[in-house]
Amino acid sequence: MSSTPLLQVRGLTKRYLGLTAVDGLSYEVEAGSIVGLIGPNGSGKSTSIDCVSGFQRADAGDWFLDGHKLRDVPPHRIAALGLTRTFQTVRAYEDLSLLENLRVAAQESDGHGWFSALRRSAPLRESEARAAQRAGALLESVGLSRYADAPAAVLSYGQRKLLAIAASVMARPRLVILDEPVAGVNPTMVRHIEEVIREFNAQGVALLIVEHNVDFIMNLCQRVVVLESGRKIADGPPGLIRSDPRVLEAYLGPGGARALEATP
Ligand SMILES: Nc1ncnc2c1ncn2[C@@H]1O[C@H](COP(=O)(O)OP(=O)(O)OP(=O)(O)O)[C@@H](O)[C@H]1O
């Protein structure tokens, strides 16, 4: 068995005019693991995941999914290789039902082109039937099946986050990047989203989670990568990250240590 990490990021660098937003960032995500990516506002979290998932072009570095080089690969090809993501701003097709929203997510990476769709070939019909079945099962597992045929417009903000997470695993990716999955969500929904993430992880999906909610990250992740000013300042298990003086100082600033203490 190969010991190559599922995701390997090497020297990722992104500049905006005079500003180096991400500066030589390297980290890894092991298959089947949950890794947190934290840091103060403006530390480069969003920019780095946008580059890794193909939504922005980096200035330097290389990154690999299971050995496949991803740099300069467009997002839909990256999704087809097994890396999908959610976005900070929740995106849903408001007028489409939840089932239709999930089926769109499957189409975006199932490799069937327009010609196949026009001919409605047997493989396409089979893949549509499988997608419909999976969409139903996913809505069940995130607790949204009662809205399966309702338009996404009826969902609350937290429910939209759940739909986005379900959409991200629709095409059976190996790695999902979640961008602030619980930002602005009530505590009950935060716990529910945590359970949903654990459930998908138990099914073998690895996750890289960007989130400001430190307790959420510390509870859920096996490893946490910390950024400051575009650079990695720490990378390790939550217990070590909580007590790392560089993290306490740089991430939270003087006097901010309490925010990293475990909640009782
Ligand atoms: N399109 C852009 N043009 C110029 N500068 C940008 C652009 N996008 C981000 N930046 C800058 O790059 C740096 C990193 O921003 P980024 O959004 O990646 O940080 P972040 O850690 O995700 O922050 P937050 O937690 O607030 O979302 C910041 O200084 C930001 O102002």
TrEMBL record:
Domain of life from the UniProt record: Bacteria
The entry's keywords: ATP-binding, Cell membrane, Membrane, Nucleotide-binding, Transport
GO annotations of cellular component type: plasma membrane
Record-linked PROSITE patterns: ABC_TRANSPORTER_1 (PS00211), ABC_TRANSPORTER_2 (PS50893)
InterPro entries registered for this protein in UniProt: AAA+_ATPase, ABC_AA/LPS_Transport, ABC_transporter-like_ATP-bd, ABC_transporter-like_CS, BCA_ABC_TP_C, P-loop_NTPase
SMART domains, A to Z: AAA
Residue intervals of the ABC transporter domain: 7-254
Pfam families assigned: ABC_tran, BCA_ABC_TP_C
GO molecular function annotation: ATP binding; ATP hydrolysis activity
Protein name in the entry: ABC transporter ATP-binding protein
Organism annotation: Ramlibacter rhizophilus
